[in-house]
Specification:
Layout (H helix, E strand, L loop, with lengths): L13 H15 L14 E9 L8 E2 L16 E9 L5 E6 L6 H15 L6 E5 L5 E2 L15 H26 L3 E11 L3 E3 L10 E9 L4 E8 L16 H13 L4 E6 L5 E3 L9 H19 L4 E2 L4 E11 L6 H8 L3 H15 L7 E11 L3 E6 L2 E2 L1 H10 L5 E4 L8 E2 L2 H6 L6 H5 L10 H12 L9
Parallel strand pairs: 4-5, 10-11, 16-18, 17-19
Antiparallel strand pairs: 1-3, 1-7, 2-6, 3-4, 7-9, 7-13, 8-12, 9-10, 14-15, 15-16
The chain binds zinc ion.
């Protein structure tokens, strides 16, 4: 039988059109139609948190100058989890951790456990560090940070803490995955100005504050996730008490402003940005609170305004590439460096010992990148390491800046990731920092094109900027 189709209101009585539309909807299997201004609950969300503050003294990491175990707790440290499941796909799970960096090996162990216990695929897990410099060291992160061997009892505390945090990340991830409730998910972009380029006065920075807001069926905020490209270093090396720095205070303030909500903070390409101002006679505590409150105020403003609702199932991709190191030092160069004081000598002596044991030093650095794209409305990019701002600015020029969310310090923090410009200029992010991270050489200039090519293969076509 041929069906003659005509426009609604023309030819068929109204009741028959409603029947036809209902039948078509059923056949096509689409979601029930919802008014345009009503949020659509195509997502369910799970939110969980776990305290990761140890109750024993432990070396805090981030500053070479800090030489003794911690002296108590200024603010508690948290790992938090946000699981988002679209009705047509498996969940994605994002963890934020108040720590300087979660090493790749620990992330892969957590990923393996979550895969075993919840069937979570690797590309659907992202682990993001806040880069606070006032949290305990995790084994494997920046192993040369103190430029001297860590005494055995202190190393034992670090190993004990690392095992416990691994268990806690597994636990908080599973809790979020097992508490999924209907939710709406929407996002918006704000701006905060306390990040300043720390290499060049007035140099490039990324002041964007992307905000993801998750509401329950009643419209109450269950979780806010925000991201900002700035070091978590308002507190100086003189602070030897555990603290989340501005990211910790932003979370605390948001959870006071939005009762019942969990606040999660991740970090963008802020490797060459510091909070401004920082430090001071109280080691930076008042300023850390001030920056945290400034960020929280902006997140609150954005989340209560007009947001872009996410309706498409997240598409997850994860790529692993290898970033090239420069040509290694010769044996004679290593021997000369080994006589120098401080980190250069310590790093050289460690590597000479390896060479004397017959070990080969790596010529490339394993590097992980990930993206979650929600239709054409939002692409989240997760980059490992301390990534400098040039990569964010490049990405925002080549891709649709108003639909991008860029997180660094994600899934691994193997070292700084300098751009070609910064490698040419030299300095801490290009060179000295690599010795603290126990890498054999500077990264080669080709790093920039390897990383850019990987991002191009990662991001779906709708995010290409309209030129
Ligand atoms: Zn850093």
């Amino acid at each position: 039988m041929r069906i003659h189709l005509s426009l609604p209101g023309f030819g068929l009585p109204r009741r028959q059109w409603f029947a036809l539309i209902a039948a078509t909807t059923l056949v096509a299997g689409t979601a029930p139609s919802v008014s345009q201004d009503q949020p659509r609950q195509v997502f369910s969300a799970g939110v969980a948190r776990v305290d990761i503050t140890p109750d024993y003294p432990i070396r805090l990491t981030g500053y070479a100058a800090r030489k003794s175990p911690s002296e108590g707790v200024e603010q508690r440290l948290w790992a938090k989890a946000l699981a988002l499941r679209h009705q047509r796909s498996a969940p994605v799970l994002l963890l934020t951790v108040d720590t300087c960096g979660v090493p790749g090996g620990l992330v892969e162990e957590v990923a393996r456990r979550l895969s075993d216990q919840a069937g979570l695929e690797r590309d659907r897990l992202a682990v993001c560090a806040s880069h606070t410099h006032s949290a305990p060291m995790l084994a494997g992160f920046a192993p040369n940070i103190f430029a001297e061997p860590v005494p055995a009892d202190q190393a034992d505390a670090i190993d004990r803490y690392t095992r416990w945090v691994t268990d806690q990340l597994e636990r908080v991830g599973l809790a979020a995955l097992r508490q999924l409730e209907p939710a709406t998910v929407a996002w918006g972009l704000g701006q905060a100005t306390f990040a300043a380029n720390r290499r060049t006065a007035g140099g490039p920075v990324d002041h964007a504050v992307p905000v993801l807001c998750v509401r329950n069926a009643a419209g109450a905020v269950r979780a806010v996730l925000a991201n900002y490209a700035c070091h978590c270093t308002t507190l100086g090396a003189g602070m030897n008490r555990m603290c989340g720095d501005w990211a910790g205070y932003a979370q605390e303030q948001l959870e006071q402003t939005l009762p019942g909500a969990t606040a999660l903070i991740s970090i963008g390409c802020g490797a060459d940005a510091n909070p401004n101002p920082r430090g001071g006679p109280d080691h930076g505590l008042a300023l850390a609170r001030q920056h945290g409150q400034a960020l929280a105020a902006e997140v609150t403003r954005v989340s209560s305004g007009s947001l872009s609702e996410l309706v498409a199932a997240p598409q997850a991709r994860l790529r692993r590439v290898r970033l090239p190191f420069q040509a290694h030092f010769s044996r004679a160069q290593w021997q000369e460096r080994a006589t120098r004081p401080g980190i250069v000598g310590y790093h050289a002596r460690r590597n000479l010992e390896r060479l004397e044991r017959g070990e080969r030093l790596p010529e490339t650095l394993p590097y992980v990148l990930q993206s979650w794209s929600f239709g054409d409305r939002l692409a989240m990019v997760f980059l490992a390491g301390e990534v400098v701002v040039d990569y964010a600015l490049w990405m925002k020029a080549e891709f649709a800046a108003d639909r991008l969310w860029i997180t660094a310090y994600a899934n691994d923090v193997p070292c700084y990731i300098p751009s070609r410009r910064i490698l040419d200029e030299g300095g801490y992010e290009a060179e000295d920092s690599l010795w603290y991270y126990d890498r054999p050489q500077r990264l080669a200039p080709e790093t920039e094109t390897v990383l850019q090519d990987a991002v191009r293969r990662l991001l779906p076509r709708p995010y290409r900027a309209q030129l």
